């Protein structure tokens, strides 16, 4: 809440206006087949992407300037794992300083805090689920090549 009154009109003044979302929202994004990445945040989340080729998850986070934002990202280790590197607006984040990471046998959760505005968050892993479609296509082409010879 902000303590600066907000004038709605001449007869209505809000003496404790809300300056940012008060209730965080959980969003689930399908990253691969039915595997979902969960983002719990008080920011607006948009343009979610999971890129197998560069082993990354990325999305935009936006909120009112002058307020604080946070984001908890839960990534299943079945799609992205290994050493992780995080970037916000193309600047590498440092674990223990800019974010915390908690992992178990199933998932990793990243907790990030920041000053609100518009940001691009990118998470890179060193290992990624195989692109079975591409693998299947290569196998089929190989079988076809062997068959035609």
Mind explaining what this structure looks like?
The protein has 1 helix and 14 strands, in the order E-E-E-E-E-E-E-E-E-E-E-E-E-E-H. With 149 residues, the protein is mainly beta. The chain has one domain. Strands 3-4-7-12-11 form a 5-stranded antiparallel β-sheet, with no helix packed on it. The N and C termini lie far apart (74 Å). The model has no long low-confidence stretch (mean pLDDT 84).
Q: How would you summarize this macromolecular structure in one to three sentences?
A:
The chain has 149 residues and is mostly beta strands.
What count of structural domains? 1
Helix content: 10-25%
How many angstroms does the end-to-end distance come to? 74 Å
**What characterizes the major β-sheet?**
5 strands, antiparallel
| Low-pLDDT sequence parts | none
Number of strands: 14
Strand content: over 45%
Count of DSSP-assigned helices: 1
List the SSEs and their pairings.
Blueprint (H helix, E strand, L loop, with lengths): L5 E4 L2 E3 L10 E8 L2 E7 L2 E8 L4 E7 L5 E9 L3 E2 L3 E4 L2 E2 L6 E5 L3 E9 L2 E7 L2 E2 L3 H17 L1
Antiparallel strand pairs: 1-2, 3-4, 4-7, 5-6, 6-13, 7-12, 8-14, 9-10, 9-13, 11-12
Name the features.
single chain, mainly beta, 5-stranded antiparallel beta sheet, 1 helix, 149 residues, 11% helix, elongated
